[in-house]
Amino acid sequence: MEWKEHVAWLAPILVTAVAYIIVRYGTKLVEEEKIRKAVVVLFSIAFFAAAVAVIFGAFINKMAPIR
Fold first, then answer.
1. How far apart are CA 55 and CA 50, in angstroms?
2. pLDDT(1) > 90
């Protein structure tokens, strides 16, 4: 159960990194393909981590509800 909580922490950390890169590089992202791809990959990993945490959380709560 703790694993899903730790995975969920990745999402806000990675999204913060994406926001910083966007603020830092701004319009340069149009020209810099490598940076743009890195931002997309980081955001995709963040979305996937959040989705995994939600799915595992739903399954765990369904199988072992708190009484």
1. 9
2. no
pTM > 0.85: no
Q: Which amino acid, 35?
A: I
Q: In angstroms, rounded to a whole number, what is the distance separating the alpha carbons of residues 5 and 60? A: 12
pLDDT digits (tens, 9 = 90+) for 38-51: 999 999 999 998 99
How far apart CA 1 and CA 12 sit, in angstroms, is 19
More confidently predicted of 5 and 33:
33
Contact 32, 25 (CB under 8 A): yes
Query: Given its phi and psi angles, is residue 26 left (phi above 0), alpha (psi -120 to 50 degrees) or beta?
Result: left
The one-letter amino acid code at 59 reads F
Provide CB contacts within 8 A for 65, sequence distance 6+. none
Helices 2-25, 33-63: inter-axial angle, 10-degree rounding:
160
